[in-house]
Model the fold of this input.
Amino acid sequence: MKPKHYLVVGASSVAGQKAIEAIRGKDANAKITVTTSKVLPAENPAADTIYGVDLSKPDSIRNIRPALSAPVDVLVFCPAFGMVGYPAELAPIEDVEACFDFSVRPVLSLIDELNPGLTIGFSSYYWLHSLEVAYGSMAFAKYALEKLAVENPNHIRIVRAGLFPSKSLRGICLLIQRGVQKENFPGATQLKTDWKASGLSFSDYFTQFAQGYEKKDLAQYLTAPYRGTEEKDLVGAIGAALEPNAKGIINVVGDSVWQEDRLNHVPDFMARNKEAFRLAESFDIRHQNIA
Done:
């Protein structure tokens, strides 16, 4: 039997590395191809690596298909970038468009071009108050991907993970910290006061702040006592997403994993940003609105 071919875009990220681990755990015969933003080396390039895929340059995804040695059965798309540090309700449409250019349109283009049987992406608990106050444009990208997953669960699945320490989180915290220090959005002053009183670095404070909301507001869904999510927890959730009958959303918080087939948390604060929310609602896998 021909081995399945998995393409992991953004494989150097935590999500990418854990996806590879999950794939190998589920499919010992898997053929895995990964992408990297690094330039093709002059000597000894890796046979299973596609170089020069830098999503800050959207045209670079065109490098993928010609470099593939076989059709793709499963696409795992990890990249996500957008402006944060202010509430989603206040996100300018220009920031949301730029976020979609990096985090949404490329994956839809790849689905259209490569026609994988299954695509797996990643999301967060963007509607919790801890992210409501500062997740900015990213909230709309996560919502758009989740909407596609519940509409097309046989083809798209999203792993929605609790906050865990990572290079990406540190970058997000730095942007949020700047917004908090400038006190330039509602709630920033109180957040700044509480952070200063904690004596912690902002990254450590915000992680505790966010995990407090996870513990309180997700309690009804947890299947085990709450603990903060760690990198290793992604492996089981990605493995669940690879199962044939998985639902569109696979949630993971610490030891708890549960699945959903609808969006139960469409927050009013996002809907109030009418232009951005309309854009997030507009995407489907027929791709007519991909630039």
